[in-house]
Amino acid sequence: MEKFEKLTGIAAPMPLVNIDTDMIIPKQFLKTIKRSGLGVHAFDEMRYLDDGSENPEFVLNQPAYREASVIVAGDNFGCGSSREHAPWALADFGIKVVISTSFADIFYNNCFKNGMLPIVMPQDVVDVLMKDAEKGANARMTVDLENQVVTTSDGEEFAFEVDPFRKHCLLEGLDDIGLTMEKAGAIDTFESAAAQSRPWV
Amino acid sequence: MSGKTLYDKIWDAHVVQQDADGTCLLYIDRHLVHEVTSPQAFEGLRMTGRSVRAPQRTIAVPDHNVPTTLDREGGIENEESRIQVEALDKNAREFGVNYYPVSDVRQGIVHIVGPEQGWTLPGMTVVCGDSHTATHGAFGALAHGIGTSEVEHVLATQTLIQSKSKNMKVEITGQLAPGVTAKDITLSVIGHTGTGGGTGYVIEYCGEAIRSLSMEGRMTVCNMAIEGGARAGLIAPDETTFDYVKGRPHAPKGAQFEAALAWWKTLYSDDDAHWDKVVTIKGEDIAPVVTWGTSPEDVLAITDVVPAPESFTGGKVEAAKRALSYMGLEAGQKLTDIKIDTVFIGSCTNGRIEDLRAAAEILKGKKIKDGMRAMVVPGSGLVRAQAEEEGLAQIFIDAGFEWRLAGCSMCLAMNPDQLAPGERCAATSNRNFEGRQGKGGRTHLMSPAMAAAAAVTGHLTDVRDLMAAPAEA
Q1: H or E segment and range at residue B282
Q2: Is B202 helix (H, G, I), strand (E, B) or coil?
Q3: Could you tell me if B157 lies within 8 Å of chain A, comparing CB atoms?
Q4: Which of A186, B25, B142, B338 is most buried, by CB atoms within 10 Å?
């Protein structure tokens, strides 16, 4: 997995609440058997008009935000379907960080498996960051995972929390399947014990 | 020290290893797999030379992409859908997991097949690359959706790296009024707590109204726990659960069943267990409900009117404006005045036999409104067969419904069953998101009986108006 350490980039404001994974990547693009190439379809129904041309109203189509690597979003980002195609599509577009007051559980987990960092901030901080994002391409936000700090274009700093294990995996770019396979002995032991205590499973 | 919740008990029974920071390696008893979220995971195994650690605990069934028309034996026309289903077929056979192909009468929606075949049992951990895995919580199993990277992790190690959620109790007291069903309970809870209200929690549903539900009803309730943001929904197992499980193909038999039963009977939340959040709703206060907007939290009693966006606060004001525009509705409009083009009865939320019985009860001797497009998609081949045996299929056909083969169908419209732009649907499924049932399609969620009522009248309808009046004493 790609490492995530520190990023300075354009943040796109998406204040809508409950942005669901059907919005992030509609079902017609889930028919792929690959992980790659979904960026062009990210936010498809908001991003493109019926004739297939870009909707100029949509934030990521605006010149200032085409190169965004951060999204500052409304509450409950990533709710709905468990599709990992959602973070795949965002990452392929170039988004590495999403900041919101809350995330749906499965989407939040999925981000960390793909070198992406979802950051939970209180409402007043998200409000400040949203304002900063609205300034456009010259206002670059910095996200420092090692020190757990987001810095606005004005230099205002906000600390954030992240699970230590997930932080470690992101910083090192670790594949957690490999890590778990090192614990095969413990899994064997558990299975033997369970075969005795719950043989019907 | 306080007692344990049901969630605590199941969690504790599955911890393989706990790290100093509290992160646990959790053992997974059942891994359900479908064709949409698994191909990249199997490919990952191939690329790293890994195998499936416990193929006997892994169950695969295609459901999202499969056509539900009677001619589907001829193959899948859409090339991408066909490739995805073929990939599952190849992966299931190559890695030797339990498999129900499209041609098997037991094929159906993964969350209907699992319980039906007795794969899902009380006290288990159950995962699937699908958010509606919450369904299996109805058995007192800890069941939740995972992403594809985690699917690969479970395939390779039969474990998941997990942090524990908090405990939330949702109690539905008393009894439900006539015409009110499990779907109305689960939608009302989401209407009450919001789609983020369960974030960070595992919900246990309890109370007299929950106890009175059949297993089918309990599955409907738990199915939508995810729509409330919860990692999982649970209902403590009881005689209703044990009766349902007994005799299923993969349920334990004889002495093993008795041994299992003895453990299953310990699976309840202790009286002195600690709850981080409690929500109590009176069963009597729940009405037949529908959704008006594009979030499952947009729930109102059918007797209500479309709300004004200004009646909300914060980001919900803009979201409600957007929803009304998308849905083509005006604030103040009576919900029962909303005309319907299409009715969809099915999905992992409401595609079980009891759901079909409830809809057929309303449709018996009636016809759907002229011009209405209506379909019933049974949740599995076995549900379909049973409905035919009970005469329900004939009631649907006589009423003017299409009687389809099993699959996810129009719930998420990955197969050809889709809404056209602007088409308005009364659906028994679980999500009313923009574009969910087809780009520009407009979805109102409701119970099977309410969907049947809308099919008859052509507009959103209070099912109680169509129910047979009780016989006079």
Answers
A1: strand B277-282
A2: strand
A3: yes
A4: B142
From the list A109, A165, A190, which residue is nearest B147 (CB)?
Answer: A109
Q: By C-alpha distance, which of A118, A125, A148 is closest to A6?
A: A148
What is the C-alpha separation between A32 and A83, in angstroms, rounded?
12
The answer to whether A73 faces chain B, any CB pair under 8 Å, is no
Please state the domain extents for chain B.
6-277, 290-465
Query: Which amino acid, residue B421?
Result: P
Suggest the residue from A34, A46, A77, A82 to mutate for an interface test with chain B (most B CBs closer than 10 A): A82
Closest CA to B11 of B27, B32, B22: B27
The end-to-end CA distance of chain A, in Å, is 34
Inter-chain touch B257–A200, beta carbons under 8 Å: yes
Query: Under an 8 A CB cutoff, do A177 and B199 touch?
Result: no
Closest CA to A71 of A53, A54, A93, A49: A93
HEC-encoded secondary structure of B150-191: HHHHHHHHCEEEECCCEEEEEEEECCCCCCCCHHHHHHHHHH
**Domain ranges across chain A:** 6-197
User: Domain B6-277 carries which CATH code?
Assistant: 3.30.499.10
C-alpha dihedral (A159, A161, A164, A165), degrees to nearest 10: -130
- Interface subset of A 39-68, CB within 8 angstroms of B: 45
Q: What is residue A38's predicted lDDT score, i.e. its pLDDT?
A: 97
Dihedral sign from CA coordinates of B120, B126, B128, B132: positive
Q: Which CATH superfamily is domain B290-465 in?
A: Aconitase, domain 3 (3.30.499.10)
Give the Cα separation of A154 and A140 in Å (integer): 9
pLDDT at B259 over 70: yes
Q: Could you say which of A20, A81, A190 has the minimum Cβ distance to residue B27?
A: A190
Whether B150 sits inside 8 A of A27 (CB atoms) is no
pLDDT in tens, B408-421: 999 999 999 999 99
Instruction: Tell me if chain B has a CB within 8 Å of the CB of A183.
Output: yes
In whole angstroms, what is the distance from residue A97 CA to residue A112 CA?
10
Q: Using CA atoms, how far apart are residues B439 and B365, in angstroms rounded to an integer?
A: 34
Q: What percent of chain B shows pLDDT beyond 70?
A: 99
The whole-number pLDDT of residue B73 equals: 85
Nearest to B101 by CA among B89, B109, B119: B89
ipTM for the whole complex = 0.94
Q: Do A177 and B48 touch (CB under 8 A)?
A: yes
- The CATH number given to A6-197 is 3.20.19.10
End-to-end C-alpha distance for chain B, whole angstroms: 55
Residue B414 in contact with partner chain A when CB distance is under 8 A: yes
Whether the CB-CB separation of B437 and B344 falls below 8 Å is answered with yes
Any B CB within 8 A of A23 CB: yes
Q: Which residue has the tokens 């929904």?
A: B233
**Do the domains at B6-277 and B290-465 have one common CATH topology?**
yes
Q: Return d(Cα B126, Cα B143) in angstroms, integer.
A: 4
Residue A94 confidence (pLDDT):
97
- Whether residue A90 contacts residue A42, with contact meaning beta carbons closer than 8 Å, is answered with yes
Handedness of CA B317, B319, B320, B325 (dihedral sign): positive
